[in-house]
Amino acid sequence: MTGGESISEGPMERQPTGEDRVRMVARQVSEPRTANWIASEADWSHGPTKRVLEHLVDDGILHRDDTGGHTTYFPDYRRQALTEAIRLRDSDHSVEDLTERLTEMNAQIRGWKDEFDVESPNQLRETIADQVLEVTEEDRRREIAREWEQLQRRIEIVGFAIREWDFLAPATERGEARR
């Protein structure tokens, strides 16, 4: 054992590697990003980050866009959405639970629209520039705008899972329903 190791360190306590961090960042980007941006977010160097990104492209997990001035990478949003919808279907949630959650998410967005008199996260961000606000209020609005965008994506996925509830059922469940 070397000086940096601990007897009690187990697999659950392992720190994510640079490759782990690149994979996490790359799968969570909401818009195409460069390898440099992803490397910076993952706190890892450019060369190894680029290699990991290319492996993810080869595996069909990411897409690469070479049409602009810089190569960008972004997740296969369809695959992510389908995987998440399947996960929701296979979880302990019922279709009624998901419908209730969808109602709550829509109510949250309506509340922000009413509170700030805006129709979108970007309009909320504009209020920061248009008004003289305390720093804490600016931070709050930026955080709400990020959460709003996340909720919009979540609403799409949960809505899809509800609409396709029967189709997404595990094969064993569909087979039992036919008997």
Automatic annotation (TrEMBL):
Domain of life: Archaea
Pfam families found in the cross-reference section: DUF7342 (PF24033)
Region (Disordered): 1-21
Entry keyword set: Coiled coil
Recorded coiled-coil stretches: 88-115
Keyword flag Coiled coil: yes
Protein name: HTH domain protein
